[in-house]
Each structure stands twice: as C-alpha cells, then as structure tokens.
Design brief:
Helices cover 39% and strands 11% of the residues. The strands form 3 sheets. A 4-stranded antiparallel β-sheet has the order 1-4-5-9, covered by helices on one side. A 3-stranded parallel β-sheet has the order 6-8-7. It has a two-stranded antiparallel sheet with strand order 2-3. Helix 4 crosses helix 10. By secondary structure, it is α/β, with parallel strands linked by helices. A hairpin with a 2-residue loop joins strand 2 and strand 3. The protein is globular and about 75 Å long. It starts with 38 loop residues before the first strand and ends in a 15-residue tail after the last helix. The protein contains 11 helices and 9 strands. It has 2 domains: 196 residues, no CATH class; 98 residues, no CATH class.
Length: 383
C-alpha cells in the first residue's frame, strides 16, 4: 500500500505520548539484536569545519569503557593503507599530502578519497578499527508505508491458505520485517482508539466499529492471524508447493504469480531489505537527530485499509512530519586492505519496493473489482 504522508492529517488530536519530545525514541540501537553489530558510526563534521588558528588534537568516542581517542597515529596509518589499496582497485594512484598536524592529515586523506570516488563518505568503527565507509542511496519512495497485508488469507482454503501463510512468514523472515505488534505501535494505537471510542465525538455506529476493531486486535481474529503467520511454516519446500498448485480461478492465478515473483526476495541466499538501511548521522543509536525507523515503515500488518491501520498511519504521519529526516536504503562498502572488488550497487531495494506495492495493490484492486487482473511479471536477475 502506498500511503502519501506529505499532507497534514485530518484526525482527532493525538495523545501526549505521540507528540514530539514526549514519546521515547524507537531506534535500532534500542531493540534486541540478533545480528552482530560490528560497525559503529560517528559524524565527521570536523572535516568540514574551519578551525581558526587551532586544530583539535583529540576526537573522542564514548564506549562502555569510557572515552576512546580515535585521532591516533595508528588509525591514520591504517586509513592511509585502506585508501591506497582502494585507489589501486580503481586503477588510480593516491597522491597523499600529510598535514601539519595529525588532524590535518586525517582531513587531507578524507578530501583525497572524496576526489577519487563518486560515493558519499563516512567514518566508521569497523572490526574494532577506524575506517572509511562509502555509501550511495538507492531510488526509494521514502514517503510510502510498505505494509504487507495478511487479511487476504481469510478468503483462501486448503493448500493455498497454507502456502500463503508460509510465503508471508518466509518473506518477512528473509527481509528482517517486523510485525504490527512489535515496537509498541499496536498498543499505542489501541489505547488511543479506546479513548476516542469512550469519548463524546463518535456516533453510535462509529463507536461500534471502533470497539469491534479493538476486540479483533486485542484478543480476536486480527491478532490471532498475525501470530499464526509469524509462527507457522507449513512447507519446507515452498517453491515446489507453489509450482504444484493448480489455481482454481483468476484470483488464485494472480496470487500464485505474485508468489513466484516474490521468491526473488526469499531465502538465505537473498539480501535482507533491512540491511540496506544506513544512517550516517546516527552514532550507534544515540544520535541527536529524530527519525522514524524503517522497521515501522516496512512491516507485516493485518489489513492496511482497516480502521486501526488508518489511525496508525495518521499517527506515524505526525511523527514523520516532525522528525528531522527519514532513512532511505543505501549500499555501503567499508574500506579495508583486504578488499578485492570496488564499490558496486545492485537494485534489490528498487525491486523490493515495486513488488510490495504490486502485492498490496492486487488485493486493493480485488476489493473494488469483481474481475482479478494477473499482475505483470518481474524479471529476477539471472532468470
């Protein structure tokens, strides 16, 4: 579902915990991690700053052991080795000029690397060493919620229902996607909806609709289906199950076509969309800038068009309109002396966004038309 968020939302006033400054930040650095976070970021504003008469002699980074000085001769020599090696991969020669101070040498090296590459550059702590990170943003519809629905599963039966549950489960797992009940968004939205339904504004029918939706997400069908998709995997060989299935009608034919297209994003040999989201302004989750995590923009929901989704999207709209920036996907490359290939960028995020939009719109069109349309086929690399 594409949800434009550039316009002011016409909704009831939000509770205080949704207003900027009152609500706790939700950042990747605050959620439980299963992957190894071996890289830490810090800004490089000092490289763009003119220091009148005095160049700093120390740049510190907070760690669990206290402040660590990053502006060291060892780090400088390592960075110089990395940049020289990378220049060789590009078929170029680095002509380095040392600065009058150690900081001046860092600044010169940064500028010399910038002259060699078209990508953006950031400093990173990678594998316990200070290094350069090259990054380049992808073409991405930033002002869009990529919310994958599961409510369509209700109209399916038998093997196709189990195929659909398994596909969404594996798709979400492969791409590190969160479910609606993660991050606290569901709890906050339900609390606001309950308060609104108990107030004087809704009429009798609206109040019933709100309470019916709340029950479904608290202990009813919506939350149970989300839990089932999150936990169940009926087929170990899902591709074979999809290929063996014979669609009964045009709707099922279109759904199977979407699953086949979507396999380019499923499996251990495919990238995860969440691995592409790189925030150069964030120092391990403690940056000053306010943003909205990609996990909340890309997620599994029950129905992107129901009452709860409408309220949740409006709440996120308010957050986004008051945040400092959004995080688009980017390809990154950490410079090390062991690199064997220069920077290259694939189109995984672009294909991912197009397929998710096609998937969501297929069910949106189905609700407004009696005739299903088989979606156009994406061509995966190598096929």
């Amino acid at each position: 579902m594409r949800t434009e968020i550039g316009r002011p939302a016409e909704v009831q006033p939000l509770p205080s915990y949704y207003r900027r400054g009152d609500r706790p930040r939700l950042r990747k650095g605050n959620r439980p991690q299963t992957a190894d976070r071996s890289a830490g970021r810090f800004g490089h504003d000092f490289l763009r700053t003119e220091f009148p008469g005095l160049t700093p002699t120390k740049i510190e980074r907070e760690t669990n052991e206290g402040c660590v000085d990053l502006l060291t001769e060892e780090n400088y020599r390592y960075l110089l080795e990395c940049v020289r090696h990378y220049a060789g991969l590009l078929g170029r020669e680095l002509r380095h000029t040392s600065g009058e101070t150690l900081c001046g040498s860092f600044v010169n090296l940064y500028k010399e690397l910038a002259a060699l590459v078209p990508q953006e550059i950031n400093f990173e702590v990678y594998q316990d060493r200070l290094t350069f990170c090259l990054y380049e943003y992808h073409s991405w519809p930033e002002w869009t919620f990529h919310w994958l629905p599961v409510s369509f599963i209700d109209r399916l039966e038998g093997p196709l229902k189990r195929i659909a549950i398994t596909f969404i489960h594996e798709f979400a797992q492969s791409n590190g996607m969160s479910y609606l009940d993660e991050w606290g968004d569901l709890e906050w939205a339900l609390e606001w909806m309950a308060g609104y339904a108990s107030g004087p504004n809704p009429d009798k029918e609206e109040r019933k609709e709100y309470r019916r939706t709340i029950r479904s997400y608290c202990k009813g069908h919506a939350v149970h289906l989300l839990e089932r998709v999150q936990k169940r995997r009926y087929y170990k060989r899902l591709r074979q199950a999809v290929e063996r299935y014979c669609p009964a009608d045009e709707y099922e034919k279109g759904l199977i076509a979407l699953f086949r297209e979507g396999f380019q994003f499923v499996g251990p040999d495919t990238p995860s969309i969440m691995r592409y989201f790189y925030d150069p302004y964030d120092d391990e989750g403690i940056g000053d800038g306010i943003t909205v995590d990609p996990d909340r923009m890309i997620r599994i929901v029950f129905d992107p068009h129901d009452l709860l989704a409408d309220n949740l999207s409006e709440m996120l709209n308010h957050e986004i309109q008051n945040c400092d920036y959004l995080i688009p996907p980017a390809t990154t490359l950490f410079l090390t002396p062991e690199l064997t290939e220069p920077f290259s960028k694939d189109d995984y995020p672009e294909r991912f966004a197009a397929w998710v939009e096609s998937f969501a719109e297929y069910f949106c069109n189905e609700t407004t038309s009696e005739t299903s349309i088989v979606p156009s086929t994406f061509t995966s690399p190598g096929k």
